[in-house]
Amino acid sequence: MKAFELIRPTTLDQALGLLPNAADRERIRVVSGGQDLYTEMKDHLAQPDQLIDLKRLPGLDRIEVDAAGNVSIGALVTIAALTEHAPLRSKLATIAEAADSIASTQIRNVGTVGGNLNQRPRCWYYRHEGANCLKKGGTVCFSKEGLNKYNAILGGGPSYIVHPSDLAPALVCAGAEVVLVKKGSSRTLPLEKYYTLPSEGDPLRETVLAPDEILTHVKIPAPAVGWRSTYIKFKERGSFDFALSAVAAGLVIEGGNIKEARLVLGGVAPIPWRASSAEAKLAGLKPETAAWKEAAEIALRRAEPLSDNEYKVALTKNLIERAFSRISR
Amino acid sequence: METRTNSAGPQWGPRESLTLLNHNLRRVDGPEKVTGRARYTHDIRLPGMVYARLLLCPLPNAEVELDCSAALKLPGVVAAQAIGDKTALKAGFLGQPIAVVAAQTPELAEDALRAIVAKYKPLAWSVTKEQALAPDAGKACKGGNLGEERTKGDEDKFKAVFEKCDARIEAQYSLPVQHHCSLETHGVVVDFRGGEEATVYASTQGTFTIPDEAADALGLKSGKVTAVVEYMGGGFGSKFGLGAEGLAACRLAKELKRPVHLMLTREDEFLAGGNRSAASVKVRAGAAEDGTLTALWSEALRMGGVGGGSFSGLPYIYKVSDSDGVRSSVRSLFTHTDSSRAMRAPGHPQASFAMESALDELAYKLGIDPLTMRKKNLENMVYHRQLDRAAERIGWTRHANKTAPQSKADSDGTKTGIGFAISTWGGGGGKECEVKVTIGRDGALDAIVGTQDLGNGTRTYVAAIAAEEFGLPLAAASAHIGNSKYGRANASGGSTTTASLAPAVKDAAFNAAQAFLKHLAETTKRPVEELAFRGGSLVEASGGKALMTWKEACATLGTAGLSADGEWQSSLASNGVHGAQAAKVRVDLATGRVSVVQMVGVQDCGLPLNRSAVESQLNGGMIQALSYALHEERVIDAELGIMLNANLNDYKIAGCQEMPELVPLIDDDDIGRGVVGMAEPAITPGHSAIANAIFNACGVRLRSLPFTADKVLDGLTALALDGGAK
Questions:
Q1: N or C: more exposed end of chain B, with fewer CB within 10 A?
Q2: By CA distance, what is A311's nearest residue in B?
């Protein structure tokens, strides 16, 4: 790891004042739990001169639920704290279950919500210093023709990474927004719009976060009456692993029919993949196996598997069916 | 047990008479390890010590030019040089050490490593089987990538037998490179500060494999280097001798005249710390209607990088009834990757997988249950006994689908199956160890020998054998091991340590007891045949009347105490072990997840010195095999020539969530034998049993490790297309 200067601001204003301009964004980085960034630094993928440690900023480590049931989660809330928050688990199961599925106990104790949403891809070409891939400023995505068992089947090209966050699909499923703050202003946008496909945005990044912004909060609207949701993550190794495929699903059933459905996929696309057509198809149908199968077909209709990951299509369809079955029982 | 004067020499005695051996003993060094007080090589810190690191070649085959001048200029860096002092060299495998640096801290050493300017001219390489077999392949071996073919049997005779078989199968089985993944990486700390002598702390499987090599590298006289192996964090066959890292550390220490700490990083360990060779095996097998195996043809490639690899040959254990029906060939396929090394039962897991899979395929084809099929082709009744016990324990008799996969999934969308496999090993010993047992006036009982404890409990049984001789509790004896100044001992390879060492410890303890009895006879003026040690006390041999406590008896010794030497006694050891394992798996049809629910291992080992340790070896073997079965695989990109998973995130080993119920069963029907090593066969059958259980569950025959969800799902899809899935 390259030597760096650690700066530990104690107010948000101080921290914002330290943020870099575009030219310095690789040289000056923010860190909270560090579970991804430190790994990147050890692997020499990130080599900042300065780290701005956000852990001392007050007030960002709280989960707040207002009287109407709207939830605000500070960026410094740890994954472990999410798993332990009882109201969240009862009202927004998909988020608690996604948190449960993340990494290991040790990492959940240290890793934060902000860090989880902003982690970099896990593609083994990206993570290898010796492979100068598209995500590192090279010209080739090696996974396209290479060993791509873990890569994208949806939304791929020119890069075929999958977004590794478990919280992201769960939060998109819950309709979450993120608050991005910079000196003198802030903006709020749907989490879904926070992530960018490599074909649409800068292939070097996965989000629209500007170098002088900090993601401070995640806001989740109060769930609709009757809302039930779940997160099913398939890990190759159960003990700790990233998703081969994951499904965040939510439903409101009214009068025996589906009133509203949400379906967001993880581990299969460069962004948390909202299956809007499948959601639309489900509205009005009876909550039964045939409907889930149809939704699964629609959600994967545009899948373009690479040489080694065709299995993800069947796996994801089966997980979709399993997720909806679970919350419609 | 009771010890009397005895001219017949040492004997283990009837098992029921033993008070420590053949019991469950807690590790004597357990508290040291769990509290972190145990000092491993990695933990050694010495005054003036510098930290060294190796630069590994990032390409599989390249001409290299090194410029270390910038690295040398960094503050805190004391050395940066090419291995072998040649700045222009040819590197012939991915991860070959090419330079070494040393600095005041590990962080500075890493900076120094990155400051070396290396120019690489890539040469054509072969890192995969396909590359190595291509006509224009880069050559990883001077004579070509294919080694000499060793064949047995006759092709035409085989064909004649094969054609007459009632059931025939043809299949190709493959196993990837597996890594040892020892908790402690390879490395040494060389304590040389000038002068005539040095001490080398080493993470090694052989205390005595270090001193001569190190003396040579340090330019010291033979006998002037002491190796210390107080604690070591696992080797599994990969740690003998100094290795490239140890040699580099010695050379640096010689030059710098200060202690050098050189431990491989985890990435180094994957690239240059050895591995279990991959294998690709084509098999044709045939059997008669009644299940008799009559024909077996095999062609095995063993892929051990720049090394030859290992494959123990087919048929593996099972008998082929018609000797004309056997035809086998084995050859090495070389690639530009790190050489394979011995790894727990070298060659056996590979051969087991091909043999047990082929036999299983024939069984289902004939509609014979796989347990019956195995026994049909095993002459040795020990296997029948062990297989029956494993089958009984895992619930085979109650199992519904014995001759075909489960037809209908359970309500949770899973199917359950059971599979079997067996193992074999030598595990005998030899005249390798010189042990001293001493008794102090203060009552101290010490067993002293330079052997090493790889984590499997050697220290505990060395102390236990000494304590048992006098009927003392385990805590009354101490084992002093891991130092080349002590009596010689063999390196721990081939499961030969226990059968070589335990008899010598027993012999030394016996000799000490005899000498002590003689001394006490003189002291008490009684005939020696009237004296005995029982429960730690000196007693009258007949009647058992207590004469002296242990402390009182010891107090009669002179200030020097008493000491006796021991050496290997063939009567105390045996050779040859068997093993049978069964695995029960649950396959999730929706995700392809294979969950191993239970593994049962039945293992003979002659006299079990410490039942807990034997069970622990058996558990460890099953766990390592499970991990091999479900996850482990070295992944190298053929075009880029880089290893994509040289870390413990992407090179997956099974964790706690993968653990089944493990049932280790010591085969106590193995009576009347001395001690035999059993560590290696414990790993041999597990993955084969899991493969067979997967088929028994869902009808997917996986012929390539690891059995990951993608392969199961692809298999289920193929079955559905065949109309075979229900």
A1: C
A2: B710
Instruction: Report how far apart, in Å, the C-alpha atoms of B85 and of each of B64, B65, B66, B81 are.
Output: 13, 12, 10, 6
Residues 109-128 of A with CB under 8 A from B: 124-125, 127-128
> Which residue type is seen at A19?
L
SS3 state at B54:
strand
pLDDT tops 60 at residue B724: no
Give the residue from B680, B674, B615 showing the smallest Cα distance to B430.
Answer: B674
Measured CA to CA, the distance from residue B192 to residue B198 in angstroms comes to 5
- Gap between the terminal Cα atoms of chain B: 61
Q: How confident is the model at residue B7 (pLDDT cuts 50, 70, 90)?
A: confident
CB of B644 within 8 Å of a chain A CB? The answer is: yes
The first and second tokens of residue B629, run together, are 């079965």
Both tokens assigned to A253? 């059933």
Beta bridge partners of B81: B100
Q: Is the CB of A1 less than 8 angstroms away from the CB of B110?
A: yes
- A312 to chain B: nearest residue by CA? B710
Q: What torsion, rounded to 10 degrees, do the Cα atoms A19, A24, A26, A29 define?
A: -20
**pLDDT tens digit sequence for B127-164:** 999 999 999 999 999 999 999 999 999 999 999 999 99
pTM for the full predicted model: 0.98
Cα dist from A53 to A16, A44, A147, A184, B584, whole Å: 12, 19, 36, 20, 49
The two structure tokens encoding residue A290 = 């045939």
On whether the CB atoms of residues B605 and B666 are closer than 8 A, the answer is: yes
User: Do B655 and A238 lie within an 8 Å CB cutoff?
Assistant: yes
Q: How far is Cα B314 from Cα B319, in angstroms, rounded to an integer?
A: 10
- Per residue in A201-260, pLDDT tens? 899 999 999 999 999 999 999 999 999 999 999 999 999 999 999 999 999 999 999 999
Judged by CB atoms closer than 8 Å, whether chains meet at A308 and B710 is answered as yes
Of B637, B652, B709, nearest to A315 by CB-CB distance is B709
Query: Could you give the ipTM of this predicted complex?
Result: 0.97
pLDDT, tens digit, 9 for 90 and up, residues B216-237 = 999 999 999 999 999 999 999 9
Question: Are the C-beta atoms of A319 and A101 separated by less than 8 Å?
Answer: no
Q: How far is CA B490 from CA B210, B494, B495, in A?
A: 12, 11, 11
Scored b (16 or more CB within 10 A) or e, B576-612 reads ebbbbbbbbbbbbbbbbbbbbbbbbbbbbbbbbbbbb
Q: Does B656 touch chain A (CB under 8 A)?
A: yes
Q: Give the tokens for residue A136.
A: 């590192």
Tell me if chain B has a CB within 8 Å of the CB of A40: no
Q: How confident is the model at residue A14 (pLDDT cuts 50, 70, 90)?
A: very high
Nearest by CB: A147 against B591, B630, B637: B637
